TrEMBL record:
<keyword id="KW-0889">Transcription antitermination</keyword>
<dbReference type="InterPro" id="IPR030842">
    <property type="entry name" value="TF_NusA_bacterial"/>
</dbReference>
<keyword id="KW-0806">Transcription termination</keyword>
<comment type="similarity">
    <text>Belongs to the NusA family.</text>
</comment>
<dbReference type="InterPro" id="IPR003029">
    <property type="entry name" value="S1_domain"/>
</dbReference>
<dbReference type="Pfam" id="PF26594">
    <property type="entry name" value="KH_NusA_2nd"/>
</dbReference>
<protein>
    <recommendedName>
        <fullName>Transcription termination/antitermination protein NusA</fullName>
    </recommendedName>
</protein>
<dbReference type="InterPro" id="IPR025249">
    <property type="entry name" value="TF_NusA_KH_1st"/>
</dbReference>
<dbReference type="InterPro" id="IPR036555">
    <property type="entry name" value="NusA_N_sf"/>
</dbReference>
<feature type="domain" description="S1 motif">
    <location>
        <begin position="141"/>
        <end position="207"/>
    </location>
</feature>
<comment type="function">
    <text>Participates in both transcription termination and antitermination.</text>
</comment>
<keyword id="KW-0805">Transcription regulation</keyword>
<dbReference type="Pfam" id="PF08529">
    <property type="entry name" value="NusA_N"/>
</dbReference>
<keyword id="KW-0804">Transcription</keyword>
<keyword id="KW-0963">Cytoplasm</keyword>
<dbReference type="InterPro" id="IPR009019">
    <property type="entry name" value="KH_sf_prok-type"/>
</dbReference>
<feature type="region of interest" description="Disordered">
    <location>
        <begin position="356"/>
        <end position="382"/>
    </location>
</feature>
Length: 382
């Protein structure tokens, strides 16, 4: 085929691909076409002549003994007898040697043209998808923006972003959110997959803690410049979140910088999250102090640590002692404050009133919890 290099340059420019990659895809398409037209078991190769700008397809022929059974079978065209090879190819050839002969695909007529077109289209499409896959694979955990094109019956939202479409599943949407066609949506890339049947698929999320972290990075220059680091983050999407912040500069207050003057920065992030309340605490590597801060707005008297959160065989537990008038603040509405503090710190938290009873992170007295667990064990026979 003549002028193949011009065709390759045109495809590369149109699809935004490198010429070398397109060249390899076109060669693969020619090879696959030859296999489909002749025999998929035969070995082929393709070469592009830069001077004539043409491509040639070659079939590999193997030299065998004159009485080899393969010379009479369905694959006879892939083999040549030793005597004939010595006469027609090279007098010094031996059994097992291989050589190539040119195969003219155009001799197959319209069938070859149609097959070649489909193969080139297929290989170029796969290459485009691989390029997009690699591009968005690097964007996992970062924010992207797109316009809603469709919302299906299951409330999955389909979003168009530049050259690719993505889906925001209902489970990854903040409770109470509703989108319609034409809305611009921000979300974090959660997962990127690719397969031969469906091509590339991108899943987005607005409920991931990473989405909150990325929103903070965009809104707070100190976080973007890494003067403040978001060490840990815990969310109950649409309701409340806690973030642990660490300053890398002695003159930067991590909480103050993140909250902003009169809360302008944190409120902007909260508005994007449908009014989600965000508690900012300063991170410390001292677990007792970190837990006390995570229990804010409750004022804690003391914290006792039992177990190691990195030890999978034992439960890491924190016994938090506090005045009785702080208990409701520590638990929070429906237990949300103590749950988030536990998620943020990695410790199961048990509250103990000064001179009173213990309360677990589920918001029930510890003794009642033990009885409840015992009844469950009896019910399930464990």
């Amino acid at each position: 085929m003549e002028n193949i290099l011009d065709i390759i340059e045109s495809i590369a420019h149109e699809k935004g691909l490198s010429s070398e990659n397109v060249k390899e895809a076109v060669k693969a398409a020619f090879i696959q076409t030859a296999k489909r037209l002749v025999n998929p078991e035969f070995a082929y190769d393709a070469e592009i002549d830069p001077e004539t700008k043409s491509i040639r397809v070659y079939q590999t022929i193997t030299v065998v003994e004159d009485d080899d059974e393969r010379l009479e079978g369905e694959e006879a065209a892939a083999y040549i007898g030793l005597t004939r090879a010595k006469a027609e190819v090279d007098p010094d050839v031996e059994v097992g040697d291989e050589f190539q002969i040119e195969h003219d695909i155009e001799s197959h007529g319209r069938t070859a043209a149609a097959t070649l077109f489909r193969e080139i289209e297929f290989h170029i499409q796969r290459m485009v998808e691989n390029e997009l896959y690699n591009k968005y694979k690097e964007k996992i955990g970062t924010i992207v923006s797109g316009r809603v094109t469709r919302v299906d019956g299951k409330q999955n939202t389909y979003i168009e972003m530049e050259e690719v479409k993505a889906v925001l599943p209902m489970k990854s949407r903040i409770k109470g959110e509703h989108f319609k066609v034409g809305d611009v949506v921000n979300a974090v890339v959660r997962r990127v997959n690719i397969d031969k049947v469906n091509g590339i698929s991108i899943e987005l999320s607005r409920t991931s803690p990473k989405f909150l972290e990325e929103l903070l990075r965009l809104e707070v220059p100190e976080i973007n410049d890494k003067l403040v680091i978001v060490e840990k983050c815990a969310r109950i999407p649409g309701e409340r979140a806690k973030i642990a912040l660490l300053s890398t500069h002695p003159q930067v207050d991590p909480v103050g910088a993140t909250v902003g003057v009169k809360g302008v920065r944190i409120n902007a992030v909260s508005d994007e999250l449908l009014g989600e309340n965000i508690d900012c605490v300063e991170y410390t590597s001292v677990p007792e102090l970190f837990i006390a801060r995570a229990m804010s707005p409750a004022i804690i008297s003391s914290v006792t640590i039992e177990g190691d959160p990195e030890d999978e065989e034992s439960e890491a537990k924190a016994i938090v002692t506090l005045p009785s008038d702080q208990k409701s603040k520590a638990i929070g509405k429906s237990g949300i404050n103590i749950r988030l503090a536990s998620m943020l710190t990695g410790y199961a938290i048990e509250l103990v009133e000064q001179g009173g009873t213990a309360t677990t992170e589920e918001g029930m007295p510890a003794e009642e919890k033990k009885e409840d667990l015992s009844s469950l064990e009896a019910l399930f026979g464990e």
